[in-house]
Design goal:
three-stranded mixed sheet; Rossmann fold; 3 strands; alpha+beta
């Protein structure tokens, strides 16, 4: 059972993720097969985050990608039509010297099978559970992923929200 603190924190994390989805994905309508949006999920794996909250982060992202069922990606919040590419980065002082680690490279969600593969990888991410809160390293790595992105067609970096 979650403590009151864990419950409030998990609700805030979920609200932040939904805000990212509402602002980031609502800006463009998908054109099948043409990536419109690159989305990088940042997960806090530092020592101040208990394992249950780390697992909650993984669960929230999995629900958005696969509707919560990695073996049957049907009812999802994110499109699987090639219009979205995602990446997953965990930040923690555990990852020395970078302060962050990319677990899912920028991947175009072009089918339920691709989404299932991403979710399976996401579920296998271990909880670092130690180290400083290196969110700046995570943000820098996310910025680099977005700037290096070639999924948007011409490779040019547009506006992005961090």
């Amino acid at each position: 059972m979650m403590s009151d603190y864990e419950f409030r924190t998990s609700r805030r994390l979920f609200a932040m993720l939904m805000l990212v989805l509402a602002t980031g994905l609502g800006l463009s309508r998908s054109v099948v097969g043409q990536v419109q949006t690159d989305l990088v999920f940042l997960m806090d794996g530092s020592g101040s985050v208990e394992q249950c909250l780390f697992e909650f982060q993984k669960e929230a992202i999995t629900k958005m990608i696969c509707g919560g069922d990695c073996d049957n990606c049907v009812d999802t919040y994110l499109p699987h039509d090639g219009s979205l590419a995602i990446s997953v980065i965990v930040f923690s002082g555990f990852f020395v010297p970078e302060g962050a680690e990319t677990y899912v490279e920028l991947t175009i969600l072009d089918s339920p099978q691709t989404a299932e593969t991403v979710c399976t990888t996401l579920e296998s991410i271990p909880w670092p559970g130690t180290g400083a809160t290196t969110q700046v390293a995570g943000l820098n790595m996310a910025r680099q992923v977005l700037e290096d992105s070639t999924t948007g067609g011409d490779g040019a970096v547009g506006d992005y929200l961090v």
